[in-house]
Design brief:
With 105 residues, this protein is of the alpha/beta class. It has one domain: Oxidized Rhodanese, domain 1 (3-Layer(aba) Sandwich). The protein contains 4 helices and 5 strands, in the order E-H-E-H-E-E-H-E-H. It has a 5-stranded parallel sheet. The N and C termini lie far apart (26 Å).
């Protein structure tokens, strides 16, 4: 599983690259902050909702600090998804490095 730093993801998004941003946090966390356009599927629901994801798409898994999302990225890779990245440091690092106006918790 490969990670991507927040600044690199922001640069690639700004350049027009398309990613599915898969946010695996819980609804109460999403209510605090989220990346625009992110698809929200809580970590515990991902295994039974794999069919909702495009296996050909580049997917960036996102959580608070990058641990849960790393686990989901590993699951996706083991399930045959070939373009999977984990957002290193999660939304916390994104807020620190890319969007200081983002709410933090």
């Amino acid at each position: 599983m490969t990670s991507i730093a927040p600044r690199e993801l922001a640069r690639r998004l700004a350049a027009g690259e398309r990613f599915v941003l898969l946010d695996v946090r819980e609804p109460d966390e999403l209510a605090i902050c989220r990346l625009p356009g992110a698809l929200a599927i809580p970590m515990g629901e991902v295994p039974r909702r794999l069919e909702e994801l495009d296996r050909a798409a580049a997917i960036v898994c996102v959580c608070h600090h990058g641990i849960r999302s790393a686990n989901v990225a590993g699951l996706l890779a083991r399930s045959g998804f070939t373009h999977v990245l984990n957002l290193s440091g999660g939304v916390e690092r994104w807020a620190l490095e890319v969007d200081p106006a983002m709410a933090r918790y």
